[in-house]
Design goal:
Helix content is 35%, strand content 17%. It has 351 residues and is of the alpha/beta class. The protein is globular and about 80 Å long.
């Protein structure tokens, strides 16, 4: 009998606990508080509130406040999340300014993103590729890195065919990523015995630091995964976001330590040096360091990197600069650039 009474008391106690938990949300709102919806869908209080009934002004944008649940006192008593973005259109310029973070989280702050040019490096074969890979292998124990590959001549060929057939920009983008992927496959095979591992654009990118800590060299293709969702080109139909943009976007969104483009020229000139006889190239203006804003204002006809990279750099949140180096003739510039030395053209974000 005593055991039965103890069991009954225990059941009653647990029932009281459940009732307490069920009634907790309602206790947050005093009986006179009524939540109504108006305008663009914002939930507001009608008759005041009490402790714990935080309104929109209580959670400062960019602060550490936690979003709260607000319960309607009418109808079915639905719960709504009270947050700074509730009811906002996400289009207002004034509102978007308030979403700027004081400091952005950097997922892989020790990773260096190196983009290997397709036409400038890989298409030239063994004589160009192997000295660069030997240098990268020597540097991997000192510097964490991910390698990204360009497409090169084969990409230009597939573009030529697609444009002749009237293919839209998104289709051309889908075609281009196959070539860059082939180059990533070749580089990963050449580096396999040194820890080279080909990865995609999925969850592996969250594991870059782990790969490097285990001695691997992750390699992926440079074309960003826009595909059929690629932006229409400002001029013509060639996809505006190709492998240079892909390298920038990855570096920006993982909060990389540095972004280095391995090319076959000293850096940025006022025009493409390859268009001029050798004796005239020395007359071309060379830019050792220039801001993205100034470069955009100059509106040069040709650039050594994709034009959209410069636009994106001026909008960047984590990447403050990039460097373009002549890795073809000077593979030794790679460890120097990884160490932060100025050995090519630096383009930086103007504050």
């Amino acid at each position: 009998m005593l055991e039965e009474n103890h069991s009954l008391q225990a059941l009653l106690f647990r029932g009281q606990q459940r009732d307490t938990h069920r009634s907790a949300p309602a206790a947050v709102f005093p009986p006179k508080t009524v939540l109504t919806r108006f305008g663009c869908g914002r939930i507001v209080k009608k008759d005041g509130g009490g402790p714990g009934d935080a309104g929109h002004g209580d959670n400062k944008r960019g602060g550490a406040g936690m979003a709260k649940l607000k319960k309607e006192r009418t109808g079915k008593g639905r719960l709504h999340i009270d947050s700074p973005l509730m009811g906002e259109s996400l289009v207002s310029k004034e509102f978007l300014k308030r979403t700027e973070a004081q400091e952005y989280f950097r997922m892989h702050p020790d990773i260096n993103v190196l983009k290997i040019g397709g036409q400038s490096i890989i298409d030239r074969g063994r004589a160009a590729v192997m000295p660069i890979l030997d240098t990268l292998v020597s540097a991997k124990d000192t510097h964490k890195m991910i390698l990204m590959t360009g497409g090169g001549t084969r990409t230009r060929h597939i573009f030529s065919i697609g444009i002749d057939l009237g293919m839209p920009t998104g289709v051309l983008s889908k075609l281009a990523d196959k070539v860059s992927w082939q180059n990533a496959e070749m580089i990963s095979v050449l580096l396999a015995k040194y820890g080279g591992v080909k990865i995609g654009h999925g969850d592996n990118l969250e594991q870059l630091t782990m790969f490097c800590q285990l001695g691997y060299i992750p390699i992926t293709y440079g074309v960003p995964p826009y595909g059929y969702f690629e932006h229409p080109a400002l001029i013509g139909s060639v996809p505006p976001h190709r492998t240079d943009c892909g390298a920038f976007l990855l570096a920006e969104n993982i909060g990389a330590r540095s972004l280095i483009y391995l090319k076959d020229e000293q850096g940025l000139f006022a025009d493409d040096p390859k268009k001029y006889p050798r004796q005239q190239r020395q007359d071309l203006q060379y830019f050792s360091k220039i801001s993205a804003k100034e470069l955009l204002e100059m509106d040069l006809d040709d650039l050594i990197i994709e034009r959209d990279v410069v636009t994106l750099l001026q909008r960047s949140k984590t990447i403050g600069e990039l460097q373009i180096i002549d890795a073809l003739r000077h593979p030794e510039y790679i460890p120097a650039a990884l160490a932060g030395e100025h050995v090519g053209t630096i383009i930086y974000k103007e504050q």
